[in-house]
């Protein structure tokens, strides 16, 4: 681990992590970390030395230029810290799925996170699914622990099959006693090109609920509406795509309860109050 700053003393730090690549359909999950780092003014404190974990012929470095001239940006995983107004610290991990030595990679990460005092973590992912773009983005949650309260939406994961670096890191964190939740947004497979601000917004709102804190949304709500309108226009130009979207909508509406339940309305009201510095009623 390359430490870029002295190891800070953190207050009840919680980890928010996402990796570009297989775990990040539409770049919805990694965009959460980018958005929060900018909104909270996070400062980078460390990064993984990429030499042992990345195949640079597969994940190539980039050339960039700034006022100081030309520089090489290496693919790697970076760790930043943001201190919230409440005094609590959030550790933000923005990674690129490594090409090799995943166990050593996760061991190096978790050892460093333990030095920071991280005892709870939220891992963010996004996957391609048969989800219509016109409906609320489904976000599933698994894991839990006392750090996340009694959240009835969190269930033990029943998934079996191939996994990415997010699943391996979750296993390593839990083995080290870190309470961990994994949130996965479903991105429509027929419109998978990044960015997907609607899925990013859905993940942010689940983070807000899970951690009971006000998350700055910035222009994401407007970008989400513009994205959906843009996809609507594209679908209208192709009758086959329009028919397919209607089929997905009918299937979705037939199998799920309406969103406007008393519980969902209450959550939206609590978000509204928190963003304005007001306490929700008890």
From TrEMBL:
Residues in coiled coil: none
Stretches the record annotates as Disordered: 138-157
Entry-linked Gene3D superfamilies: PAC-like subunit
Single GO molecular function: ligase activity
SUPFAM superfamilies for this protein: Cgl1923-like
Pfam family, one: PAC2
Keywords linked to the UniProt accession: Ligase
Protein name per the record: Putative ATP-grasp superfamily ATP-dependent carboligase
Native organism: Actinocorallia herbida
